[in-house]
From TrEMBL:
The keyword Transport applies. The keyword Nucleus applies. Residues 30-102 form the Importin N-terminal domain. This is ARM repeat-containing protein. Transmembrane segments: none annotated. The lineage of its organism: Eukaryota, Fungi, Dikarya, Ascomycota, Pezizomycotina. Its main location: nucleus. PANTHER family: IMPORTIN-11, IMPORTIN-7, 8, 11. GO terms for cellular component: cytosol; nuclear envelope. It is found in: Nucleus. One of its GO terms (biological process) is protein import into nucleus. It comes from the Eukaryota. Keywords: Nucleus, Transport.
Length: 1053
């Protein structure tokens, strides 16, 4: 398709036709052309023309309205880049209601969404007559007979979407705009709703004749749209809906309708389409009540008949629970006997689903009402006295008239005996898909707003927590009746154990769980009878719920004994039991009171069973959950996991290969392997053949897994490099080219990348510096110049460079130091460092209104001076080479460059806080005395060496501060000197820590005494200047007497 197509109606139709085809190349070309046209004037108006042209194929009109809707999203706002011009907006707006009689309901729906988005932005300023126009159409159509039903339906749908869009606004202006028009809209829609309800209830009451079903369906559709609109208006159109008479009247009508609608829906003679719409009315009313309880809790409680509404829903909960509990027990017992339950008809399945939804809505209403009393939503909005009084009144209404002790106890009883019982469908899922049942059951806890079993558990826990004094005694009594091996009602006992587990936090003082564990649970898990696999699963969950609350440390071995038994493969320990036990074990191990001595004897059978279970499982999520438990155990065992490490690692390799592109599972494998590597230490090197390919796959951008696996791969990489002794295997060193590009990702992983890189520098300094030194330095230079590094990351980066300098000097001496400094100069790294120092110096030369400020943070500047200090301490001559290079680049004498560098260095010394860094700077500045004569005038005398000897006052101040700070007067030693490292038994023992220890022991900062170091260089400087007297005349006459006096007290010379 031509890239330079002009925007004309015929060409637009051609592109729309291409965009509607199934040819991928045409679709791609059309999308590209739409992208070019969407910023041109007139494009969106032409799209509207295409949509309004009913002679065009539906596919073209569909694509046109979709493109128009997307364009409104991107370009309708006044501040949008390339926004739609005002005259084009007016043209589009003027024709938005022309398609009010659209025949195709899909096109009408998309058009309604487009109108709603425009209305949100343009009402009321640019489109003030929107709502009056819609209400006029609705009023006219509703009084014009069946011939206008389509127009009425489409207009109501459009009104609903406009109101919904307005109600979703968070700005106060949007809310106020909707509230201003709500009374008028509410009146018209409520009146039409009442007429429709009266109409279709009359049809349902008088029986169905020819054509009456279609008529009832049409009227039901209209009333449903009215109800959905009224729901949004009542929620968002009034700040205090309980004070509005129209809402109060409608609320009373809704209460009556819920009762009558539920009665009507129970009829078996209703046509399916009528039954479906009637049930949607009931569920829509339930949504209205739930939204009010959440968003207008006070208004919900104070509106008339709210208590009757809640009692009505409670009756629905009881009725459904009675039928559910009876059916569940019957079907469950049938399945336990091995009998096949009868399949339900489609109508029966739909009825159950509807009753389930109604009962769920009832539970959500009770939760919201209880939360209003005990856990109200906080607000920072100012509340008037009337609002405060209404809130208190609402709380008192629910507290005294709804949640009475009798009601609370009855609610608990119904939940436990009806809704906690496993249903036939649960047992079917158990046998048909064990993994899906186990994982789905636990994950369903987060879906309590949509599933009745998790919601029942949430409601039960709320009641137990908030009404502990009322419910503790009846719960304990029920538990006492069932806490016996003799009770064989498996399904009911499972329900009771569920309740006791959920209420553990409230019952821990009333139940001796240690005794229950020994007298009941241990014998119970050994019963070999059909159906006891249900109790075995529940016991595993029950223990996990109580172990963090009240199971004593001496009783923990009983827990591990039960766990070991339940993980053993037997007919009753089916996959559900073993998988549930494995997942529940995590709570027992990953817990504060866990003691290794009580777990040790069970370690081997448990780990063996878990690894066998992983091999048996097929689903990724199930495998990951068990692998996570193995990881927790490995962490707890520490180095003790080495005995089982080979078996675990032997599983990880095939699992890695078998997961394909399932990155979540690969993440778990990498994390597990990292824990094992750290646990076994240097022995982990034997897994290098598996680790290296995993790391390569995880970080190679060409493999497509880097975005998913980078963090976990870096964790494993870091662990591996820590335990790898020198010399490192070549395949592991060959991974370095995959690590260096990760420096440019600029993500939260940068710190870990830098840690791994530093490990490589210490592990194989010659290989890293010779092969990749310049590349690393160039990446570091780029990171500095981008200016996005935080001080912490900058600190790590400069630390790595300092380590590079140190190891280069240790390994290669002066030549090695020259090499790495040359790389830092060539890459621009040191040039940037000196440039930042120059900028800071220039800023310090300014004062007053025109004062400048350095862009470099003080902490970062400290790290920069540490780098210069490290270079200088290794070789002051190399430092002068660096300064000379910068001076040449700037076109100034070396003395000038040394002047501002040293002025800034001495000036910054007071900002260096760490004693080690202060000593490093002190030693480096002192070594400059050794090369004093290498820079200066040609005529000898005082000029040569003035660049450093002329700063004797600064040097004396630094020496005095550091010597006094580090001097230990009691034993005559100096801090930061390790005299006997071989006697340090507590020093960490990983291979990397040993390498770091060796490097530290060779560091002059930890080897030499500052006082002796200064004395030696100062005496040499005096000798070079012709003796002490000549030195004093030349360089000390201008020094402050107090500074000289403080230094003299130290007795250095």
């Amino acid at each position: 398709m031509d890239n330079a197509l002009p925007l004309t109606p015929p060409l637009l139709l051609q592109v729309l036709e291409a965009g509607s085809s199934s040819d991928p190349s045409l679709l791609h070309s059309a999308a590209a052309q739409f992208k070019k046209w969407e910023i041109q004037a007139g494009y969106h108006a032409l799209l509207q023309d295409a949509f309004l042209d009913t002679s065009l194929p539906t596919e073209i009109r569909w694509l046109a309205v979709i493109q128009l809707k997307n364009g409104v999203d991107k370009y309708w706002r006044k501040m949008a880049n390339n926004g739609i011009k005002k005259d084009e907006k007016e043209r589009i707006r003027s024709r938005l209601l022309e398609s009010i009689d659209e025949q195709n309901h899909l096109l009408a729906a998309q058009h309604a969404l487009t109108v709603s988005k425009i209305a949100r932005l343009d009402f009321p300023h640019d489109w003030p007559d929107l709502f009056p126009t819609l209400l006029t159409i609705i009023t006219t159509a509703s009084s014009s007979g069946p011939s206008h039903n389509l127009r009425l339906n489409r207009t109501l749908n459009l009104l609903f979407h406009v109101v919904k869009e307005q109600a979703s606004g968070r700005l106060a202006r949007t809310r106020v705009n909707l509230q201003n028009v709500t009374p008028e809209i509410f009146g018209v829609v409520a009146r039409l709703y009442g007429e429709c309800v009266e109409g279709w209830t009359g049809i349902l009451g008088s029986g169905f004749s020819s054509g009456s079903v279609e008529q009832a369906v049409e009227v039901l559709g209209v009333s449903l749209l009215c109800l959905k609109t009224l729901r949004r208006l009542a929620l968002s159109g009034y700040e205090f809906p309980n004070r509005v008479e129209e809402v109060r009247q409608m609320w009373t009508a809704f209460r009556q309708q819920v009762t009558s609608f539920l009665t009507l829906s129970s009829s078996t003679t209703l046509p399916p389409q009528v039954q479906k719409l009637l049930r949607r009315h009931i569920l829509q009313l339930g949504k209205l009540f739930i939204d009010f309880s959440n968003l207008h809790a006070t208004a919900f409680a104070l509106l008339p008949d709210t208590l009757e509404i809640l009692r009505l829903y409670w009756e629905a909960i009881e009725a459904y629970g009675a039928e559910l509990g009876q059916t569940a027990i019957q079907k469950g017992e049938q399945m336990l006997r091995g009998e096949t339950a009868e399949e339900e008809s489609e109508e029966e399945v739909e009825r159950w689903a509807f009753m389930d939804r109604v009962a769920l809505q009832g539970m959500l209403l009770l939760r919201g009402s209880a939360r209003m009393i005990h856990n109200p939503v906080g607000t920072i909005k100012y509340r008037h006295q009337q609002e405060k009084e209404e809130t208190q009144l609402a709380v008192n209404v629910f507290k005294t008239q709804l949640f009475t002790p009798e009601m609370v106890r009855r609610c608990m009883e119904v939940l436990v005996t009806r809704y906690f019982v496993l249903k036939g469908s649960d047992l079917e899922a158990w046998s048909e898909d064990p993994e899906g049942f186990t994982v789905g059951w636990e994950d369903a806890t987060e879906s309590w707003e949509f599933l009745i079993r998790p919601c029942a558990e949430k409601l039960f826990m709320d009641l137990v927590n908030w009404y502990k004094d009322i419910l503790t005694e009846p719960l304990v009594n029920v538990f006492s009746n069932f806490a016996s091996v003799e009770v064989t009602d498996i399904l009911t006992k499972d329900a009771v154990y569920t309740a006791v587990g959920l209420a553990a936090a409230a019952l821990h003082d009333s139940i001796n769980f240690d005794q229950f564990l020994e007298s009941t649970l241990i014998p119970e898990v050994q019963i070999e009878k059909p159906g006891y696999n249900i109790l075995r699963r529940r016991i595993a969950i029950l223990i996990a719920q109580w172990v963090t609350v009240r199971i004593s440390v001496p009783a923990r071995p009983m827990v591990y004994r039960i766990t070991t038994h339940l993980l053993t493969i037997t007919p009753l320990n089916d996959l559900v039991v073993r998988l549930t036990t494995a997942r529940a074990l995590k709570a027992s191990v990953d817990e504060w009171e866990f003691r290794m001595e009580g777990f040790e004897e069970f370690t081997e059978p448990i780990l063996t069973a878990l690894m066998a279970l992983i091999e048996e499982l097929e689903g990724t999520e199930a495998k990951m959950s068990v692998l996570d438990v193995v990881g927790v155990i490995a962490e707890r065992l520490g180095r003790g996991v080495a005995r089982w490490s080979e078996g675990i690692v032997g599983l990880l390799g095939p699992l890695w290969e078998g997961t394909g592109e399932e990155h979540l599972f690969k993440q778990a494998i990498l994390g597990m392997l990292a824990k094992l590597v750290m646990a076994v230490g240097e022995e982990g090197v034997r897994w290098m053949g598996m680790v290296v390919p995993m790391l390569r796959l995880s970080v190679d951008p060409n493999e497509g897994m880097q975005v998913f696996l980078l963090d976990e791969a870096l964790e494993l990489w870091d662990a591996t490099i820590k335990v790898t002794p020198a010399p490192a295997p070549q395949p592991f060193l060959d991974l370095l080219p995959y690590l260096i590009p990760c420096l440019d990702l600029g993500t939260l992983s940068l710190k870990r990348v830098l840690d791994v890189l530093e490990g490589y520098v210490i592990l194989a300094p010659r290989f890293v510096l010779d092969t990749y030194g310049l590349t690393i330095a160039s990446h570091f230079s780029s990171l500095l110049r981008e200016g996005n590094l935080k001080p912490e990351a900058n600190s790590i980066l400069t630390t790595i460079v300092e380590v590079m300098i140190r190891v280069a000097h240790v390994v290669g001496g002066e030549d090695g130091l020259h090499g790495v400094v040359g790389m830092l100069l060539e890459s621009g790294f040191l040039g940037y460092v000196l440039g930042a120092i120059r900028e800071s110096w220039e800023a310090h030369q300014t004062t007053g209104p025109n004062k400048k400020y350095s862009r470099t943070d003080t902490l970062i500047m400290t790290h920069f001076f540490e780098l210069l200090a490290r270079i200088t301490l290794c070789s002051p001559g190399v430092f002068l080479r660096v300064v000379g290079y910068v001076a040449q680049q700037r076109g100034e004498p070396v003395e000038t460059t040394l002047g501002w560098v040293l002025e800034e260095w001495f000036g910054h010394f007071g900002n260096v806080g760490h004693p080690k860094a202060r000593k490093l700077n002190c030693l480096a500045l002192t070594r400059l005395l050794e090369v004093a004569g290498e820079v200066g005038g040609e005529n000898g005398g005082g000029e040569r060496g003035k660049w450093i000897l002329g700063r004797m006052q600064d040097l004396l101040s630094v020496w005095t501060d550091v010597i006094v700070e580090l001097r230990d007067e009691e034993n005559g030693t100096e801090s930061l000197i390790y005299w006997a490292p071989e006697d340090d038994d507590d020093f960490p023992s990983t291979a990397e820590q040993k390498r770091r220890k060796e490097l530290t022991m060779e560091d002059p900062v930890h080897k030499v005494r500052v006082q002796e170091f200064v004395k030696e260089r100062l005496l040499a400087a005096q000798e070079a200047c012709g003796g002490a007297e000549q030195f004093s005349r030349d360089w000390l006459e201008g020094v402050d007497g107090d500074v000289l006096g403080e230094f003299a007290k130290l007795g250095v010379v």
